[in-house]
Amino acid sequence: xxxxxxxxxxxxxxxxxxxxxxxxxxxxxxxxSVTDVLxxxxxxxxxxxxxxxxxxxxxxxxxxxxxxxxxHWPTKDDSTFLLSSVSPVSPDRQASEKESHIGVEPLSxxxxxxCGIYSMQEDTSNSNGSLVGEVQIHxxxxxxxxxxxxxxxxxxxxxxxxxxxxxxxxxxxxxxxxSISLDxxxxxxxxxxxxxxMQAHMLLNLLKESVIRRTSLYTIYRAAICxxxxxxxxxxxxxxxxxxxxMILSALLDQCLDPSYEIDLLTVSFDGELAPDRKxxxxxxxxxxxxxxxRRWRLVEIDADLSDLMFETSHVMSLIxxxxxxxxxxxxxxxxxxxxxxxxxxxxxxxxxxxxRIKYKSNAxxxxxxxxxxxxxxxxxxxxxxxxxxxxxxLHEEMKLDMxxxxxxxxxxxxxxxxxxxxxxxxxxxxxxxxxxxLNIPLWEVANLEQPSGIGDKKILREVAELLGLYEAAxxxxxxxxxxxxxxxxxxxxxxxxxxxxxxxxxxxVRICRxxxxx
Length: 519
Fold this sequence. Notes:
Oligomer: single chain
CATH class of the largest domain: Alpha Beta
Distance between the termini: 40 Å
Helix content: 40-55%
CATH architecture of the largest domain: 3-Layer(aba) Sandwich
């Protein structure tokens, strides 16, 4: 890691310092530009870099915002320019006693830095060495990356012939899948032979390559440098609900990780054994043991009571900032607790009803997260609404909107909550090669929302799950972490009195003010 970082910084230091930041090589010095170097990086990154040779500050985030970087732009009231990966207490957070009592919430001091590459030069004519106020924004020079940012798809609406073929395939698949009872003995891999399109096979291979990149021995040992000195080193954990996305990641991780390593599956619940995610996580564990019986799986059950988390909730509020709704906070708390990995594991076999629970804290430094699967494969309820209102084009536009704002709505917030526990979130579904492939195939092969929930939504990922032998997970409907863990229900009761009152107030989008019960 140190050698890799040194090489990268050296490369940046050798870039053009003539002040010409156009694409390609500088005509004056023949060197490449900082923009060119940053545009070649695949995967998540955020950078603040001072190039001394040109007296220029460079900063930015990768094209999808997978790493957090916040900015405070100078204003009339505060001319300070600040960059930070987290949001420390800012002057406007120190509100007067009067504001605190009446619940007034000031304008946010911090903003998520929009994805891109930026530069600001030092004013050499000024004796105090201040920076020029104007920030330059630079386009990525990687043409492939630029296409991914535009997120345009050529094949959006199927012809009548495509629809008939797709309908025939889905009818056969529906019969095969629904012949599997969740209570029955699972079939062996390969015993069910629905006609799975070649695109699903190709996506499976790309996802496997994506997981390999994020869990190679090099990255594992690099994470181990961070301070783990325990005998039982578990290198990688999965944010786990037992749902479609986390089941696919877990099964792929088993294929990519040395069999001597154990895998932690981190699942959080605010309603004990009754939460839907806890039930599906236990069912998912059984299915994983079936498809990968030689792997040592460890389901880490993280139990929480919202009423006991006053200090923790206040801390998470600072992590999610500038996100500021109850939905953001609910997701943030669930992610923060899950990534902490402090829970219980069972010492029993599947058929043992008298099992004991043992206290356990996961020491994995790498956490696989399923972000991006719903946005790219039409997994949200709003996608079905958009399809109903605007057909295929309406669905495409909604999915494009989701992908182009995922940096602001999701990834920065999630990265801060997970990184606070010393973990590094990695997003296999947001691998550039995966995104490019899903864009290059027809939309109706990715999802078909003419079909019911659990079949047409995330259609291609359900086919991938079948190829992995995950037949039960392949038919599970989408369930967001705030609902599956039941933190949303507990939050609604605490802050609005009941779920009904919260629904009437559209609680998920309500901004949190100081007099909130969250503290």
